[in-house]
Amino acid sequence: MKFAEEIRDLRRKCLLSQVDFAKEIGVSFSTVNRWETGKSKPNYKALKRIDEYCKANSIDFACSNLVQEDE
C-alpha cells in the first residue's frame, strides 16, 4: 500500500476529517491533504506525533512501514 493510502486509511479509521486529524497531530489541514495526495510525506516529528496519537487511542498503525518506504 502506498504512503498516501496508509495515511488516508489511518485517518478514516479514526473517523476524522482532514481538518480534525490535522488538529489532533498538530499540523495544518493542507499538510494532511498533501500527505494524502502524495505530494509530500510527514517528517520524523510528524510521524512521532501520529504514532503517539495512535498509541493513545489504541489504533493499530505501524509508522515504521512508512519510514522504510523511503529507504
TrEMBL record:
InterPro entries named in the record: Cro/C1-type_HTH (IPR001387), Lambda_DNA-bd_dom_sf (IPR010982)
Residue ranges of every copy of the HTH cro/C1-type domain listed in the record: 7-61
UniProt protein name: Helix-turn-helix transcriptional regulator
Species this protein is from: Coprococcus ammoniilyticus
